[in-house]
Known about the structure:
Layout: E1 6-11, E2 21-22, E3 25-26, H1 27-37, E4 40-45, E5 62-64, E6 75-80, E7 83-84, H2 87-95, E8 100-103, E9 109-115, H3 127-131, E10 142-143, E11 146-147, E12 149-150, H4 160-175, H5 185-202, H6 209-227, H7 233-258, H8 264-293, H9 295-321, H10 323-326, H11 332-345, H12 349-359, H13 362-391
Parallel strand pairs: 1-4, 1-6, 4-5
Antiparallel strand pairs: 2-3, 6-9, 7-12, 8-9, 10-11
Helix pairs in contact: 1-2, 4-5, 5-7, 6-7, 6-8, 7-12, 8-9, 8-13, 9-13, 11-13
Amino acid sequence: MAEPVGSALVFVPAGVDPRVTFTGWTLLxxxxxLARAARLEPAVVVDGRDPDPAGxxxxxxxxxxxxxxxxxxxxxxxxxxxxxxxxxxxxDAVATDGPCVVRDDAGRVALVSTxxxxxxxxxxxxxxxxxxxxxxxxxxxxxxxxxxxxxxxxAKGRSAAAVAAGRARAERELLAFLDNPxxxxxxxxxxxxxSRPVSRVLxxxxxxxxxxxxxxxxLALAGAACIxxxxxxxxxxxxxxxxxxxxxxxxxxxxxxxxVLESEWGEWLDITSxxxxxxxxxxxxxxxxxxxxxxxxxxxxxxxxxxGGLASFVVVTRAEKTEGRWLGSPAWESxxxxxxxxxLTTRDTSVLVLIAAASGLLxxxxxxxxxxxxxxxxxxxxxxxxxxxxxx
Length: 392
């Protein structure tokens, strides 16, 4: 894990049961995961009202008492354990210039981003005292475009049915705001509406985003094999499997963000899987087009798309790794490059394959994709080179 950039103090407010689960984790375990994902060293604040939870929830790390010295200088984020948010909210709070106070949708102080110096080097009694005099730049329930959901089902004394109902509501609300900024038209119209109920079911199961990604890849390979079949029925079935893969591609990201399981390895696996799916799909189309174009022409077009797809993977990966350097540039190359990357990552392609399969137009789609892939990677490379030059 990278060196922490600050500390996170996790508070268990009076009347809250930190042992209840949300997105598959206890509230304290989840708060610790949120902190670590934002490169913060977590500690739970114990005020003597409850037993020391370190033995029951070892993943939280250490415990501190109000008034005790803070062990790390620099940024300090204070967080209620009974707030539903994603790691991006803590990262945004850390990245904010100066102090920041965020309230949840019940109006409670849910997160405070401050410094060791502002806290006089000591652990505060609660979030409210730490927030006195600090600015509140966000409206209640939000930090920018990140939701801050009050998990009221965590109150002690609630019945099992009330806890289950409240958890289900909160998880639905959290998932509803986990869209990807690069979602395409079909994602917004269809895929996200189908992926969220699936993600909601999977949250309570010990299933990782990477397992979903691998399963989606295997499903797509089966779909590509069906597309290679002659006629219409097989290709349409294959295209439907690809559309199901597109839905699962939404699910793995939702699960990763909701369960705080985001990782660089998972991001690389997702990008690699998407590339392999595109290549396999058009190789399947090349086999399907064999009787129409002849073996030599069909394989040439398939090879052209494969080369273009792999080249696009390399170019796009390089562009995304350096996004922090060129994205803020006002140059038109940067804006166009951002739009091209969004086009590549969209899952709308699966609908084009379905339409082509149903209408018998897979061969024209193959021809267009084979040459279009070359234009895409070469154009993206040129734009990235110029955008980096402007950003330098």
